[in-house]
Amino acid sequence: MKILAIETSCDETAVAIIENGQDILCNLISSQINTHKKYGGVVPEIASRMHTEKINILIEKALTETKLSFKDLDAIAVTYGPGLEGALLVGITAAKTLAQTLQIPLIPTHHIAGHIYAHFLDPSPLPHTEEHKQPEFPFIALVVSGGHTNLIKVKGHFDFEIIGHTLDDAAGELFDKAARALGLGYPGGPVIEEEAKSGNKKAFNFPRAMLKKGYNFSFSGLKTAVITTIRALEAEEKEINTADISASLQQTISDILVYKTIRACKEFDCKTIVICGGVSANNAIKTTFADETTKKGYQFFSCPKILCTDNAAMIGAAAYYNYQKFRTSNPYIRVNPNAKLC
Length: 342
Hints:
The chain has helices spanning 33-37, 44-66, 85-102, 111-117, 171-182, 188-196, 220-235, 242-267, 283-296, 305-308, 313-326, and strands at residues 2-7, 12-19, 23-31, 75-81, 106-110, 139-144, 149-156, 159-165, 272-276, 299-301. The chain is α/β, with parallel strands linked by helices.
């Protein structure tokens, strides 16, 4: 089953063609980061306009690269939410048009489900040289990105139970706001990760809110602590060591994410942890997870960077397993910027 997938939830225009939920025939991404960087964050109107400019070009390029035609496609998949309303509308309009014209199923796909199903894709080049190992159910998924920090028990295909979520800022938002306060630019995650490489992660003892209380997250206090520290140093005319602050912040976030995820694994009787979303591309966070899960005897899965950030391949994978389970198509799907996973 060949699925052409479209993802336009935020600031990446992405198109992919996925076969049987696992094989990536192509995965194209047009990033808008350089455009939004000058504004210090994503501007929704600009994002929508840029999606409109790129979407048809990427669809044509995907078919050209795979040497396929429209008649070779078995279904269209598209992100319907959550995300920016105008950005989502561009993708859904293109997907509806294709599905209706080709008279093939249209599979609406939740963005967070896409991140989880990135782990079911085989990232190795075709033809595969070895079998791709997929996480076994049940497992705990940590979805951590600019807009989401969720702990989810995945009991089977499209059988989700949300056990924790952020009460305020998501981890990715914290990185962005801290980077802005430090004058490091946007997006915050990559620049703080780079700055942290030369820093002392024990230089600042930032708070770890709600660490042992439930499975929800709260990063607003950590954000305030970082900004207060910077302002205090400025007021005293002391040197602001951006490397030390970045390293300490990064380690604090890692500790919170790892501690809660491993504790959830133990309580909900799961042997496997997967991390996904843009923040999971952070190598320091991956390393902390890998070290701690090895010590505790859990299986740990992470994705290559291109499958951590927003992409259409993950949407195609999720759509495949959705369709295999429910056999449903919805040509009348509407944009849902605040869509719930379950």
